[in-house]
Structures are given as structure tokens and as C-alpha cells.
């Protein structure tokens, strides 16, 4: 016999029939009697009329607390529209945040009221719990997003992170590969090896590690690689460089992805990092040269060859001009400095140095 919609029935361990009203996002409601009986249908109609939508995790939260706010954020369209890697990173940060304990009250942050968070509290958290400037910046940026969500959903009227100054980071982040390091790697790993294929894919597409690991022959169309970036969602069409094409032709590929493990399976990001590190050590490279450094090297090469910021962005998929312009500025500085010294040499050759 067909059961009413949204009902689930089963035989319990005592041999009795049990039924429930079940609908995704709604509370489960026990249904007495047999399906379609008067008693059953009265409870069924009451369940349909009175059942209310329940957010994931809402039963474990108290309204107005950080736990309730974070649960609401997880269930929002704003969160679901993020790239998978971004969602994972933000969830990790927010879960550590709400499970941490405040020094003032000894309470779990998740049990504290959102409206009680002050600018001073944010400054103290950043100073006490975050050991590096990079970690502090990521934490504050994530908390800002959460507080902006809190304002738009009436948890509070102001953003206590708005005036918090992000700590500066010395240096340029991931180390860019120079031509010397690229030559060392290529000398150690000949064409036809997985290591050389990895280098070529990273260097000639200027893409992030995660996007390179997903590339395969199914993405080749009319001499171009079609890439949808995981981080930005941008769709790119990148012409295949002749050097990359030659390496692809010389490297046996029997899988959907170009890069695979020794067992022929796609790489996970962490597994690829470990293997790539071993390849770099074998090539005699010092510590600090990573896959992301090859993305920077690709952008550097383009800038040094005179490409504009917009041209670099068309390959790399950077979202803002400022990110691509820094490569152009660095290349222009080198070029202008070289031209200036050449001009100075012509005017003052220094041929009388050392003469009385």
C-alpha cells in the first residue's frame, strides 16, 4: 500500500509498526496507528500544518549566541556560493573560534552573545591566540565577514572588526622561482616524467595548484586549455604553449587528469605538495620553492616580456588589476634601471679610472 507523502514506516525491534512524518529541513513527527487510518491521518495533517523549518544545528544553539550566528551563516546562500576550498577554510577558522574559551569569563565563545563582542575583545583575541601575521589577517577577514552577516541579520548594529588594523606581512609571500631554479629542475627531471609535466603545467598556465591538479585532456579544445578556477569561479581559455604541448605529447596519460600518483590516481593537494617537495630536493633546490611560486614565475615572465597587467590577468585569472600590476611594476623597475645605467655609462664611461 502506498503511504502518504513524507511518511516513513519501519518494523521496530519488538515487531511493531512505527511511522514518522519526515521532510527535509523539518522536524520529525511520530504518527500513531496504521497508515490511512483516521488516527494516523489526523496526526499527519497536524504535522504538515505545524512543522516548522529547522536549520542544520539549530537544536544545539541558543538564539543570539555565536553558535546560532555561525549555524545561520553556514545555512546561508552567501556561504553556499563560496568555492569549496574557501568554505572549508572558513569553516575551520569559525569552528576553532567558537570552541575557544574566553579569558574574561571562561565561557566557550559559541555560548557568548554576539552583541557583547567589542573592538577591544577582537584586538585581544588577535594578540593572544594568533601567532603569525598571516594567521591573524585570515582570522580577522573571516570574522569581518561573519560580523557583516550578523548586521544584515539583526544580531547587532555595528561591526567590531571594522577598525581593527590588519597586521603587516613582510616579504612578498610565496617565493617566486627564478630562471636558475627552473633550469635546475628541468635538468634533473627530463621530458616524459611526472615532475617535468607538473612544472610545465604550472609554469605555462599560471594557474593555482588545485586547478592544475584537475586539468586533463577533456579540457583541451582547439589548442586551448579551458579552466574554471576553483577559487574565483572564473572561466579561462588559455592557449597551450608549444613547450607544454610537446611535454603533454611525450608524457603517457591514461587518466582523466594529467597529473596522477604512482598508483595512477588523481593527486590530493597535500599528497602533491609532498611529492613536489621531493622533486625539488632531488633537483638540489633549497627550501621554500613551491608550486605557487611557479604561478608567480609565470606572471613575472609575462611582465618581463612587456605584457600588460590586463594580459597577465587574462592568463592567471587574478581578480584585480593591483595583483597583476605588481609584476608589471617590478619588470618596469628592472628595465628602467638597466636603461638608466646604460645611459649613465655612455655619458660617464669611467675610462680614466685608475689613471693619474
Q: Could you characterize the architecture of this molecule?
A:
This protein has 356 residues and is mainly alpha-helical. It has 3 domains: 7-50; 58-152, no CATH class; 179-303, Intergrase catalytic core (hpI Integrase, Chain A). It has 14 helices and 6 strands. The strands form 2 sheets. Strands 1-2-3 form a 3-stranded antiparallel sheet. A hairpin with a 2-residue loop joins strand 4 and strand 5 (224-228). Helix 8 (194-205) packs across helix 12 and helix 13 (309-316) packs across helix 14 (321-347). It starts with 6 loop residues before the first strand and ends in a 9-residue tail after the last helix. 23% of the residues are buried.
Largest sheet: 3 strands, antiparallel
Specify the CATH architecture of the largest domain. Orthogonal Bundle
Q: Count of DSSP helices? A: 14
User: What ranges have pLDDT less than 50 throughout 5 or more consecutive residues?
Assistant: 52-59
